[in-house]
Write a structure and sequence with these properties.
It is built from 49 helices and four strands. By secondary structure, the chain is mainly alpha-helical. 37% of the residues are buried.
């Protein structure tokens, strides 16, 4: 067998792929292998695996590349006759002609299952026609619909023989086999496929003149449905059924367009009404839009099921886009005109448009009700009354006119007295409605609160208190969940609990902890997440303590640790230097893919935990949060430090810094009084400086990093004179406080460029500070080269939770890395949304960088990010954390820089920020005033909609324009005919 392995290696490496070598070298070698039993042939699989990848070393790293094509062709044929279905991973390298030569010699029983596995990445690269030939030859027993869907869309493509040539298409290939259109074509309607991409390529070829006609499958099926090759009725129904198969958005959109391509007739649409209405439950908008357009064509026909349509379409008002709602309005117009009994039902259904923060839609609904509604209907009046707080002023005016006009329309079936009484009632209702329009005071009528509640401003409350494990059982359960914890504070609490409960644990408890140690081993082996790898390394370091402690004869604890260690070391030796996920001691740990240092303080803190467990110390960690998401109650922190003072023990500098950074800046008088009672000397001076607004630093300064941290928490904008001489004060103060200047953007080359960032923090230049970096401050490690470690919530939350009182430096990095406008990547959306969620959970004032993130996020392309930003604005104003005027100035500057369209902001205000409370409406008025004043002299796109919003807001707030700068700016814009009317309305308030 060794000789055979050597021969395989020599032949594969020297093999040149041509017909002569195939007949004289490859096929004879295959025949020799087939003479051996399968058990012997399988011994060649490890050799094939080694030969498949070419290993090389570059710049000290080991890399692997796939072997050359000729060698891959040789090895794939050998692997085919040696392996089973699970072991074949080179089938893609085997061409159809080679497979046809091998199958007469060896046809494995697993061939049909292997080919039909449409989930594998290692299958044969066979076309639809080649698969059909295998069926004709009898080697392929059946072809599953999933595999058909994968290959059938490509049957019309003719590959170009030139490397850079254009492919051509021929849809007549679908007619080669009768089974294709009779059976196989329906697989495209049951499974995901590349038919959309294939269709686009065929249409592009037609537009370029490569093909004489449109050879796309969609057009081909349309023609085949007309000439009888495909059952047209089945094609229409099957297309409609695809909208319930949970296909991806792109494929669902293709089928929606395909239904339009089929051009169903009026008779066909009338017969498919039930199936079309079922599409209204689709989670995507395009198929719904297409169905509404089809219903619009038959709305005036006799067979139209108008009653059922009105009932079913009401579910669309909440989630549908504007164009769909306008189509529904048009269909309702036709229904109301032809079927008078449906007028009230249509009016009541359209009232849902008043929930839309779009004035044109509300005016459409109000106009419809004015035209077709019956003001004497109590049902309609009650419905209108319930929606009145959401109506724009123009919609309310139309409804008031509608009610007033109804006075002149007495019910002829009633008596004159009854008619008079009814008129008086209607007149009273109309008067009330008109009064509401005049005063627009519905916020104060109880639907909106006047002032924000101050109860939610407390940082440390009972409802967000973090519970510490009460006993050993609770601790063991909590430790078992360590890798499943979603919140940073849970991990912090669990690690702190290890110090408390370690003295109580015995060998039996250690055995119960083995699963979590196994998971730590797997994390070190498989995880690419730096924080998870660090956590796993810490756990294995803790396990080492148990192994060293084991003095029993059996040595079960030592044996358990040895097994894990040998497993890790064995994997490391096979992986090589290329893969840095090696098993390291905690002291030697570093991220495997960069020289980032942002986790170094956490590593040093956890090393201190290991040392304290070794020494038997049970003093609590200072930095363990007491309240979510990462705060420590000031009085509790004072008591913890007092325990260190009483034990005459110096706290770990990283633990001390983190504790001060997390200190909740509230109940300062109580904490100060407690500090005076239990602390003395430097500890007392430090906490008086932190908690007393008027206190200044007072020597001695033994704990210099803690003093600097206290200064950054207390007044980050101030660089205290006493601290400048500290050995840890080496970086510029703005690097520690996060007070950066905006980047001056160059003139843009095209509107709304996709990569125009507000800040460009040059991370590489921070290395210039590395030589004089004191490596004493947590903040120093946080800043240096942490660009690549904050792009995921698993990284971002632990980092942000280190500084809940001053997250500005990290926020600046997030802005620099991810706040790009245009079409950002998914990691940008995820990172910004997570940063906004964390800011929502904090209680610190939002300074310049956070306000810049807020303003940029309100203009961000992703709707989820804009929604989080709107909530942050609402909550920040309620808690008094936001400088509202500065936010308006930032928004104005961003709009002036043409980084994003103004419409994004206006739309978000309507959806999330308007009418939240009377207080917030007045704050929104101030925000818009500052924003409008800061806009460019030349009106920007979307300005009219912003001014309409401002008019609506002023009317709602009983306000009028008092800002002279705003008056002047509006006067300058009156020259624009598009703005003149709305500006006149603003000035006439």
């Amino acid at each position: 067998m060794e000789e055979l392995k050597d021969e395989l290696e020599k032949l594969s490496k020297a093999y040149v792929d041509n017909p002569e070598n195939e007949e004289k070298i490859l096929m004879p070698f295959i025949k020799r292998l087939l003479e051996l039993p399968m058990k012997e042939r399988r011994k060649l699989l490890p050799v094939i695996k080694d030969l498949q990848w070419i290993k090389s070393r570059f710049a000290g790293c080991l890399s692997e590349t796939h072997c050359k094509p000729a060698q891959a062709r040789f090895l794939s044929a050998v692997q085919f006759v040696c392996g089973n279905k699970r072991e074949i991973d080179m089938a893609y390298d085997m061409k159809f002609d080679m497979l046809c030569k091998l199958l007469p010699l060896y046809c494995p029983a697993w061939l049909t299952d292997f080919i039909n596995d449409d989930k594998t990445w290692y299958g044969f690269d066979l076309s639809y026609e080649e698969l059909m030939q295998l069926m004709d030859m009898g080697y392929l027993k059946e072809l599953h619909s999933g595999r058909i869907a994968k290959v059938l869309p490509w049957v019309t493509r003719i590959r170009s023989k030139k490397p850079q040539g254009d492919d051509t298409f021929n849809s007549d290939f679908l007619l080669r086999r009768d089974i294709t259109l009779k059976e196989h074509i329906w697989a495209l309607f049951e499974h995901e496929s590349g038919i959309g991409y294939q269709d686009d390529c065929a249409k592009a070829a037609y537009k370029k003149g490569i093909t004489a006609r449109d050879e796309s499958i969609s057009i081909a099926l349309y023609h085949f449905s007309l000439d009888g090759h495909v059952d047209r009725n089945r094609l229409l129904k099957t297309t409609l059924s695809t909208f319930h198969r949970n296909f991806k958005k792109e494929m669902t959109g293709w089928f929606a367009g395909f239904f339009e391509t089929l051009q169903p007739t009026t008779e066909e649409l009338l017969s498919l009404q039930e199936e079309m209405m079922q599409v209204f439950t689709s989670s995507y908008t395009k198929p719904i839009n297409v169905m509404l357009q089809q219903f619009k064509k038959i709305a005036a026909e006799d067979g139209f099921c108008y009653q059922e349509f009105v009932e079913r379409v009401t579910t669309l008002f909440f989630s549908s886009p504007k164009n769909s709602l306008l189509t529904i309005h048009t269909i309702f117009e036709k229904i109301a005109a032809q079927h008078p009994e449906m007028k009230e039902a249509c009016c009541i259904a359209l009232c849902q448009l008043f929930l839309k923060k779009d004035e044109s839609l509300q005016k459409k609904a109000a106009g419809f009700i004015s035209k077709y509604g019956d003001a004497s209907s109590s049902v309609l009046q009650d419905t209108l009354q319930s929606y009145q707080p959401e109506m724009f002023q123009s919609a309310q005016a139309t409804i008031a006119t509608f009610n007033a006009q109804s006075i002149n329309k007495p019910n002829s079936t009633k008596t004159a007295n009854a008619g008079a009484a009814n008129s008086e009632t209607i007149n009273a209702e109309a008067t009330n409605t008109a009064s509401n329009v005049a005063t627009a005071d519905h916020p104060s009528a109880g639907s909106l609160s006047e002032e924000p509640s101050m109860e939610a401003l407390c940082i440390c409350r009972e409802d967000n208190r973090i519970s510490f494990p009460a006993n050993k059982e609770d601790f063991l359960f909590q430790l078992s969940r360590l890798f499943d914890m979603e919140d940073s504070w849970e991990i912090d609490t669990t690690i702190a609990a290890i110090i408390t409960f370690h003295p109580q644990l015995d060998e039996e408890d250690f055995s119960r902890m083995e699963p979590i140690f196994q998971r730590a081993t797997n994390a070190v082996v498989n995880s690419w997440i730096a924080y998870e790898d660090l956590l796993a390394t810490f756990l294995l370091e803790y396990q080492r303590l148990w192994a060293q402690k084991d003095t029993s004869k059996t040595g079960s604890l030592r044996n358990m640790f040895t097994r894990l260690e040998e497993r890790l070391k064995g994997i490391d030796s096979n992986r090589g230097a290329y893969d840095e996920r090696a098993f390291k001691r905690l002291a030697d740990w570093k991220p495997g893919y960069s020289d980032a240092t942002c986790f170094t303080p956490i590593q040093k803190l956890w090393l201190n935990v290991i040392r304290r467990i070794k020494s038997g110390s049970t003093l609590p960690l200072l930095s363990t949060p007491t309240h979510t998401p990462a705060y420590i109650q000031a009085t509790e922190l004072v008591r913890r430090l007092a325990a260190y003072q009483a034990a005459d023990t110096k706290p770990c500098t990283w633990d001390f810094q983190l504790a001060i950074a997390r200190c909740a800046m509230e109940d300062k008088e109580e904490a100060t009084a407690t500090a005076r009672q239990v602390l003395k000397n430097e500890y007392l001076h430090l906490f008086l400086f932190l908690l007393d607004e008027n206190a200044m630093p007072e020597p001695p300064y033994t704990h210099q990093p803690a003093w600097v941290t206290a200064g950054l928490v207390k007044s980050p904008e101030i660089e205290f004179e006493d601290f400048k001489s500290f050995s840890c004060s080496t970086l510029p103060h703005n690097y520690l406080s996060g007070d950066y200047e905006w980047k001056e953007l160059k003139p843009k080359e095209k509107p709304y460029e996709t990569d125009r960032r507000l800040l460009q923090l040059e991370f590489n230049k921070w290395h210039e500070y590395a030589e004089r970096n004191s490596h004493q401050l947590w903040q120093e490690h946080l800043i240096l080269n942490s660009k690549y470690n904050i792009d995921d919530s698993r990284y971002m939350e632990p980092l942000l939770c280190c500084f809940p009182n001053r997250p500005e430096p990290l926020i600046a990095q997030i802005i620099s890395c991810y706040l790009s406008f245009g079409t950002p990547q998914e990691d940008s959306k995820r990172s910004i949304a997570h940063a906004l969620r964390m800011l929502l959970s904090f209680h610190c004032p939002l300074r310049e960088m956070s306000l810049l993130l807020l303003g940029g996020s309100l203009l961000f392309v992703d709707k989820t990010v804009r929604s989080y930003a709107a909530e942050l604005w609402i909550e920040g104003l309620t808690a008094g954390r936001i400088n509202n005027r500065r936010t308006g100035e930032i928004l104005a500057r961003l709009i002036s820089m043409e980084l994003a369209p103004l419409k994004r902001f206006t739309t978000q205000v309507y959806e999330s920020m308007y009418k939240r409370s009377t207080f917030h409406n007045h704050q929104l008025e101030e925000l818009l005033t500052v924003l409008i004043c800061g806009l460019p002299d030349k009106p920007v796109t979307g300005l009219k909609q912003l001014l309409e919003l401002h008019l609506e807001l002023l009317s709602n707030n009983h306000s009028r324009i008092t800002d002279e700068q705003l008056r002047q700016r509006l006067q300058e814009w009156t020259a624009s005919s598009n703005l003149k009317k709305i500006i006149t309305s603003l000035n006439n308030l």
